[in-house]
Specification:
With about 350 residues, this protein is an alpha/beta fold. It has one domain: NAD(P)-binding Rossmann-like Domain (Rossmann fold). The protein has 12 helices and 10 strands. The longest helix has 20 residues. The radius of gyration is 19 Å and the shape is globular. The chain starts with a strand and ends in a 9-residue tail after the last helix. Pfam families: Epimerase.
């Protein structure tokens, strides 16, 4: 069994990764940025083999000590906002610098096995501007592209920096996981910004439905890929898009409306021109406007073929997320955080 450092352990994906690691018998060293977030993770795994360390993506302090005695680095931490920042560097700097900081510290500590969490957003807006075709893991999002959001740029740059680092240091053995929109059940009411779209739908805070689509994957499958990748030699040097199937926002609303007839889920589909007009004054619409007319589908077949599993369907992932959101809203939890 291995000792695994999981960065950003209070994040939505990371909590599931921690649970998957513990279920497999591994020891977890979890990084958090505050006592409050440590308490959230501790409450989920009382008495488990979890050790906590405080780290920040923007500081060198503590990284060397955190990686001492570790076998695998699982780097999931990265800022994940609900709306575009005024300065894209507010996302790009911590994403890129934090990834390189983690990799340098791992190499210095003799930790050569790394699993990095990226996103399908680093794939589906390529430089050829062919918005209609399905993308594959060979594609890369154009950093300064007309449709690229600051978050997508930050994740693309961070992943590219990681691949350059391991090319310069061939003893490092990297696997990258590129999830789509991550739905599925939250382990507690602190589900962060990953389920923001579902929350907006089921609470009626999305008054109109933009005609955009996204790849969808269940968080349990994302965690499974991370943990299986770290012991699979065939996964080294590969990136694995995680996508159970594309869904549009109106399709999501239809599924949720059928499951929750009491919910205030709008039936109004917004025309593209209106989303573009609103994007000038409503930050959340800025992201939606950059997805209009884009086929965001990414081929996710490599991961189940490599690791031997079947995806939980996009529909079931959406419904599991909705159950968490409804329960979290009732408990007064949820809301955006700075990790995915």
């Amino acid at each position: 069994m291995s000792t695994v450092l999981v960065t950003g352990a209070s994040g939505f994906i990371a909590k599931h990764v921690v649970r998957e690691l513990l279920d497999a018998g591994h020891t977890v060293r979890a990084t958090v940025r505050s006592d409050r977030r440590r308490a959230q993770v501790e409450a989920l795994f009382p008495g488990a083999a979890v050790e906590f360390v405080s780290l920040d993506l923007t500081s060198d302090d503590g990284w060397d000590e955190a990686l001492t005695g570790v076998d695998v680095l699982m780097h999931t931490a990265s800022p994940f906002p609900t709306a575009p920042p005024k300065d894209p560097q507010d996302l790009i700097r911590p994403a890129v610098d934090g990834t390189l900081r983690a990799l340098r510290a791992a190499r210095a500590a003799g930790v050569h096995r790394v699993v990095l969490t990226s996103t399908c957003g680093a794939i589906y807006k390529p430089a050829d501007h062919d918005w209609s075709r399905r993308k594959t893991r060979a594609d890369w999002t154009e950093i300064d592209g007309p449709r690229t959001t600051p978050y997508e740029a930050s994740k693309t740059l961070a992943e590219q920096a990681a691949w350059r680092f391991v090319a310069e240091h061939p003893e490092m053995r990297l696997t990258v996981v590129n999830p789509g929109m991550v739905f599925g059940p939250a382990l507690d009411e602190h589900y962060g910004s990953s389920l923001e779209t579902v929350e907006q739908l089921v609470t009626g805070r999305m008054p109109m439905l933009p005609q955009m689509n996204m790849p969808v994957v269940d968080v349990r499958d994302v965690a499974r890929i991370h943990v299986r990748a770290m012991t699979d030699d065939g996964a080294v040097g590969q990136r694995f898009p995680a996508n159970a199937g594309r869904m549009s926002i109106p399709e999501m609303a239809d599924v949720l409306r059928a499951a929750y007839p009491d919910a205030r889920i709008t039936t109004r589909v917004a025309p593209d021109w209106l989303i573009r007009v609103l994007s000038a004054v409503v930050p959340a619409m800025r992201t939606a406007s950059r997805g209009l007319g884009l086929n965001a589908d990414v081929d996710g077949s490599d991961a189940p073929r490599q690791f031997g599993f079947d995806y939980i369907s996009s529909r079931d992932a959406l419904l599991a997320a909705a159950e968490s959101v409804r329960g979290g809203a009732a408990a007064g939890g949820g809301g955006p955080t700075a990790s995915r």
